[in-house]
Queue: 3 jobs
Job 1
Amino acid sequence: MKLTLLVAALPAASTALPTWPWTKPHSKPLKYPGLDVLAKRAGLLYFGTAIDNVVLDNKQYISIARNRSEFGQVTPANGQKWMYIEPTQGVFNYTLGDQITVPATRAGQLKRCHNFVWHNQLPEWLTSANWTKPALVKVLENHIKHEARHYYNDCYAWDVVNEAFDDDAAASLRKDIWLDTIGAEYIELAFKFARKYTRPGTKLYYNDYAIESVNNKSSKVAAMVKDFKKRGVPIDGVGLQAHYTVGRAPSYDAQMAAHKLFSRLGVETALTELDVRLQLPDNSTAQALQAQVYADSTKACLDADDCVGVTVWDFWDPVSWVPDTFPGYGNADIWDANFTKKPAYYAISDLLRSYD
Ligand code: 9MR
């Protein structure tokens, strides 16, 4: 994949801030280069991680999370979601988001911002009211306006709409407050508002899971992207979340086909939430298979024409979202509970080195 320098794409008015989007190249050769150093050498824009607020007081965790050699990019796992940002209508609270983004900026890490619109983690004032369509459109615009302005200089990319397609066989649009009240138009409205209020050059993404191979859902997403491109609705990227299970993950070839499905429509792709869960208790065989899935997925991003980077959905097993959602599964990340790098870490590292 080729790295395109965003700065060049910015309009003249923005050249006063040449360092945006706040990442800098690694300067000196390191004895033990981390994943981001190796990813950049291999041609990616970044290797990153999600970070959640609940673990910010763990010094060992933070020393890895803020190590720019390992992670050149950070996504707030929760802090920028609607229920935290606008807990009361019209009252905005950026505390949790800032706890993740401000130190990332200081550490020279790129930020993917997550998310403007989702069916989940919405505040009760929003979900419990009976909105008319015009009233809810106003709520949507106002939320995007405030959050986009607050994080104006922060975000390499925004996940503008998250998980709008459902898991039924037809991959219909998900029935939620947005679809029920505004109709399918809410998606393009969100993208238009995002373009209106985010910094020019910010990459606007549609982000979803189970679209990492060519299937009904990814085909629906591709049809939407194609339609948006045709009608001039702003969209720049598709995020393949990549929440995998050992034994059921799409192959390298299947993932390559998914990247291609989107990139041929003129959008970039990224693995935005990569993790690979295991049935517990795990063992070395399962960990070796897990390592292979991490490596295959990273390789597909490296080989795809327009995949810009890989983000793991946290790097430390104890903070993974997996055990709560999939009882009996876990250990999905690349550092174990003792902060020891797992085979998955070394598989990614070795793969990236082989592209140097
Ligand atoms: O990691 C997040 C977890 O802490 C939250 O409890 C959960 C709520 O649904 O959301 C998790 O992050 C999700 C992300 O925002 C969107 N894609 C799926 C992720 C895992 O559920």
Job 2
Amino acid sequence: MQELAFAEKNLTKRGFLDIDVDPTLDLVAEIEKLKKEKNAIILAHYYQESEIQDIADYIGDSLGLSQQAANTDADIIVFAGVHFMAETAKMLSPSKKVLLPDLKAGCSLADSCPPHIFRKFKEKYPDHVVVSYINCTAELKTLTDICCTSTNAVQIIESIPKDKGIIFAPDRNLGAYLKKKTGRDLVLWNGTCMVHEIFSHEKITKLQMRFPDAKFIAHPECEAHILDMADYVGSTSGLLKYSLETDAKDFIVATEPGIIHQMEKASPEKNFHPAPPANTCACNECPHMKRNTMEKLYLCMKYEQPEIILPEWIIKEGVASIDRMLEVSAKAGL
Ligand code: 13P
Ligand code: SF4
């Protein structure tokens, strides 16, 4: 009890449970035990570290994770991902306890679109439909007509009558890609993903010279000049599927490198090269996704903290935009 009170006090400041974990503990076994004891399910995004992916009950992209969160009969959803993903799970399953190992696992896209500023922006286009990439805050979803992910974005845009104007937030790169793909004239919010906006055209070209037969595959959050170089553009699950089904030996992958763990598992005979960023850092990891660790996952399951708590009005007003997205996706067979 005393330990829990200490945990609560520490959590407020740090966003995670800062309690020492015995380094000799078998975390995999402990987490498996906690899953059974508490009827908990671990949902993990492809950008999580490999160990977390390997212990998850479901690994997927943002659409798959939302579908799982909406349909699970577990009592506790442990979200190994970032804050907006755990919020989405809470909105879809409000009666369940949703845990996030580190509350500070945020997202630069979600941060780029503060709801009070977006509200004013939206007022300038009163007849427009608002489509928001799911990478946004729960409050932004209350100002959104329909959400999308990178897997269903084309179908969501195409589900909107042609005579309707559309605001697309918050990712300007995905928005520009959708304009090109659908021929629709979208009003774009000026947000970007800090991971996908820093790939280097020059360094990728050099890598292509080293592996001339490699397929270059990219996530649509990348900038247009990177997408223009790509043999295939798609969501994380799309990239994984393409790498499995395409007959090439080498792939240059322009997205967060966490996905490469699944690519290597699915196609052990192929080589996957992370696309290099323009900065001096050699890797392109998402610092938010990588805030989650096995230790934090274990502690959060043990103490059932940190928990995602959302005001009722946000759940009520925001969930409609996610429900609409899931309906259109189901009709499109996604
Ligand atoms: P998807 O996995 O849905 O493609 O999204 C990528 C991403 O950046 C999630 O934060
Ligand atoms: Fe957000 Fe980009 Fe990290 Fe995804 S990879 S959580 S979009 S910052």
Job 3
Amino acid sequence: MSVSDSGSATYSEALEGSNAKRGLWSSRLAFILAATGSAVGLGNIWKFPYITGENGGGAFVLVYLLCIAAVGLPIMMAEVLIGRRGGHSPVNSLRLIAERDRLKPAWRMVGAVGVLAGFLILSFYSVIGGWAVSYVGTAASGQLVGQSAEAVGAIFSNLLGDPMTLLLWHTVFMALVMLVVAKGVRAGLERAVSILMPGLFVLLLIAVGYAMTSGEFGRAVSFLFQPDFSKLSTSGILVALGHAFFTLSLGMAVMMAYGSYLPKNVSIAKTSIAVSVIDTGVALLAGLAIFPIVFANGLEPGAGPGLIFQTLPLAFGQMPMGSLFGTLFFVLLIFAAWTSGISLLEPIVEWLEERKGLNRTASTLGAGVVCWALGIASILSLNLWSDFAPLGSIAMFEGKTIFDLLDFFTANILLPLGGLLVAVFAGWVMSREAVEKELALSGPMFRLWYLTIRYFTPVAVAAVFIYNLM
Ligand code: PFF
């Protein structure tokens, strides 16, 4: 599904060529599956529960849901519509639309932000993907059966303390991602998403069912859904906003790339809503599966990035057929992370192909290996360098390891920045007619979206930024 348009095509040449050269998604469902494959990943199951725990629960969840609905969804629609309008890879789409409207091609920056963000995110994403790979073996070998919370915690600490094992699983995960991107066999994966995503959903439901019967479910529900604003800090608001971008794969032009393959007659609003609802549903289910176990076992909700690896294995160790369910769960988690990882690497590879004229294999190898090497810094942050805080002298970054900094800088700065640029592009740079035609919404709905993307979204993102920097 790669596109290699020559960088020098004029708008009309490119537009004429585009429909003949590029296949479109076979249906609305195919797009939803691919976009969901990118959106649903470690962000939903690994990151959402732990940042919710760190930021005090309900109030954070409420702000996160607001960010999804009022910022994330409108920006997803903007990305998809820019992609479909341009009909090319993100960088070329932006350039073409901006050129046609006689505006500066400075919008390449959006592509550049995307490439940089993808690169940095994938480096640590692959390390966490590696944790999931490691837990397949842990669950399958029956090591979790009947274990106490302490023993399950010790299994996790042992993994983090062992750089060579982490490196091994990080390598395996990165190789899986590179393999698919190099071969360009996304079509097969999209079919797989349609089976495996529902599978992940069912296993999460089983975990929630276990949590309902054996954990402190009521306490978890009030923790997640009863807002207590005294527990939410301003930095928590930034984290919620950043996570809305991260979890929906926004701000790095992934949805723009996918939108370029969307048939013209498909509703951008409906498909974007579907993707956002599925993504949010998976995150909330993960929360409902994890927190009852946290409370029932006296664990710490703010335990940090290890939270799901210290709670779910405990549940799998105690439920009937737990080794089987646990193994399946981690396999499906790898798969969810894999499809997201592919969407992180793909834009970099396309960019290298288009800009540097490298072929797909060379681009994938080059980008993948550099990303893998950067991942080693995240691995070391978990053990040998766990006390090393490179920007520790700045109050905001006190105690943050390289891994923490990469996560913070990408999710909370780069992605919202990319999203801000997308909003400004759709709201102010593109012509209103073009935008209106692509979205094909009813009058009032269009006006609501247009006002949001022109004023509310840019102001909200800028305000959260400025407030946090001060
Ligand atoms: N949305 C993915 C997740 O929640 O795990 C992560 C991600 C993928 C972020 C692709 C950004 C992106 F472009």
